[in-house]
Amino acid sequence: MSLPRQIEYETMLLWRHRDLAVDGGHLERSAYILLSRLRAEGAMSIGQLSEAFGVARSTIHRQVTAAHCAGLVDRIPDPDGGLARKFRVSAEGERRLLEERERILRGLERVLADWAPEDAAAFAGYLKRFNGSIEDISGRRWPRA
């Protein structure tokens, strides 16, 4: 099997196993990613989110509307005085995001419990490099601490 085929297969399994490893998720994956981006960058408009994620405005609009209806984001005037409304993580969204992140971290700690620290560090480094390569190709960088 070629390396790209192996990587495709293993990343497919990774997506599949993620929720299983963390006892399922309480936030939908799209909401988790949306809240994570807003938390990292601050308030953003539908257009800015569409550009950041590289998806159609209609897709982002549906996701933001669902998050807004669930009380996860607040709609606010543009702090810079622009015409477009922006969205920011609400207090409830912040609470749920942090709760979900802690659940994910506990699951990952269980998965990595018998890994040598240097193996876990190498895996994290390879994932970061892999994601960085994808971001370089797409021209859309994800904010990192």
TrEMBL record:
One of its GO terms (molecular function) is DNA-binding transcription factor activity. It holds the Pfam family MarR_2. InterPro entries: HTH_MarR-typ, WH-like_DNA-bd_sf, WH_DNA-bd_sf. SUPFAM superfamilies: Winged helix' DNA-binding domain. Residues 20-120 form the HTH marR-type domain. This is MarR family transcriptional regulator. It comes from Nonomuraea aridisoli.
